[in-house]
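Working notes for the structural subgroup meeting. M.R. asked for a predicted model of this chain before we commit to crystallization trials. I am recording the input and output together here so anyone reviewing the notebook later can reproduce the run.

Input as submitted:
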Amino acid sequence: MDKENNKAKFQRKIIFVKRNLQLKFVAFVLLSVLFGMVLMIYEFLTLLENIFYAHPVLLQVFFEEGSSLLFVFVIKVAICFAILALLTAVISNKIAGPIYRFESACRNVAKGDFSTRVKLRDGDSMKELEQEFNQMMDKVQDKLKEEKGEKKND
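Returned structure, recorded in token form:
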């Protein structure tokens, strides 16, 4: 029962937890894909130019059939970009969510709450960092207890 409550507790309702970081990531991926597409289109147009130069008759057939194909191609590219943007946003959430949790934990520690621990969801990145942070905080808390015990003995 307790494990079920933990899973429900850590389900994020929003995709953009660290909006600026995630939007930069999405923009980077989309621009990279766009750049790759521009290169591919350039190569394709260069190939078509060579074909039409060698066989000028094909040019008329291409323009007659190509206009409907171009519209379908543009629609498919738009759909692919929308799907890519959504997938990139979801993937960026797996990175930004843990960063948000670590920032929040660091703020709590800075305020003096040394009992703060980070708890990440299953599937989030940075699980090793979570373990290291929590072990570090355990050691800090133990040191503070030791120092309080030494001061009482003095």
